[in-house]
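A reminder from the course coordinator: this example appears on the midterm review sheet, so study it carefully.

Given structure:
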């Protein structure tokens, strides 16, 4: 005989939360990239962009904060691939905290300590008036991710007379805090090899603000460039980004100049 809890659970499993049965995206296959020969690459440039999740167009990557049955934030999807499935590999940023060449794969123990760091804070003892150290394990959640950094190659294929943008890597960015809890800046949590991420990104929907029946996957979102980013670095002889040379508005202006040069180059290849 079923208990009351089991009976209620069985009844819940027969409830359809919607007007029709949805076919989940795990049935979709990842569309492979067109084959590209090195001899056909007439022009190439590597670009680094930051996708700020505070911008409205990018908020589909940030929300929902709490997981829903049929929708998750991008970082929650990444956690599933890293922790639950083990289908993707995280790469550390190295001793300089700036390495993005996938040279430092993280083991499970390193990844667990990174996603569940021990945070040291100080508070005043009301009895003695002295500061005392407090250690807490604070899990990194989608709420803590403020941006994503992507590394991509812009390529012109002379065989097809077409310009491609291939995303090579993606890194979640979180805030850095001082011992007093003040924001000190931002840091890249780890890097992911994007071609490896495409399979799990293709299994989860992104919210469509215009039509709920025509949702796209995270992989489709990136392939169709349905996000807004600003360029923080282009490959150069000094291997330095935009910020060390320009500050504030000047850095944004330089980012826009690089972006305009990329589109102008493509348009100049054609004559009408």
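Designed residues:
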């Amino acid at each position: 005989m079923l208990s009351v809890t089991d009976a209620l659970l069985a009844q819940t499993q027969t409830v359809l939360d919607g007007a029709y049965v949805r076919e989940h995206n795990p049935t979709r296959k990842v569309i492979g990239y067109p084959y590209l020969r090195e001899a056909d690459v007439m022009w190439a440039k590597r670009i680094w962009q930051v996708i700020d999740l505070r911008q409205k167009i990018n908020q589909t990557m940030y929300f929902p904060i709490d997981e829903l049955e049929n929708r998750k934030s991008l970082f929650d999807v990444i956690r599933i691939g890293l922790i639950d499935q083990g289908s993707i590999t995280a790469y550390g940023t190295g001793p300089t905290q700036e390495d993005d060449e996938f040279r430092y794969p993280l083991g499970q123990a390193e990844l667990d300590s990174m996603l569940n760091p021990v945070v040291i804070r100080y508070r005043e003892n009301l009895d003695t008036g002295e500061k005392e150290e407090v250690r807490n394990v604070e899990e990194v959640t989608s709420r803590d991710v403020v941006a994503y950094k992507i590394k991509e190659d812009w390529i012109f294929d002379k065989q097809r007379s077409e310009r491609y943008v291939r995303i090579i890597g993606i890194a979640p960015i979180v805030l850095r805090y001082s011992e007093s809890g003040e924001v000190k800046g931002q840091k890249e949590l780890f890097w992911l090899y994007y071609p490896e991420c495409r399979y799990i990104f293709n299994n989860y929907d992104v919210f469509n603000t215009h039509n709920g029946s025509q949702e796209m996957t995270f992989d489709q979102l990136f392939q169709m460039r349905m996000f807004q980013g600003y360029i923080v670095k282009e490959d150069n002889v000094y291997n330095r980004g935009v910020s060390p040379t320009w500050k504030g508005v000047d850095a944004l202006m330089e980012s826009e100049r690089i972006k305009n040069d990329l589109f102008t180059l493509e348009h100049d290849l054609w004559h009408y």
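The chain has one domain: 39-107+141-268. The first helix runs from residue 4 to 13.
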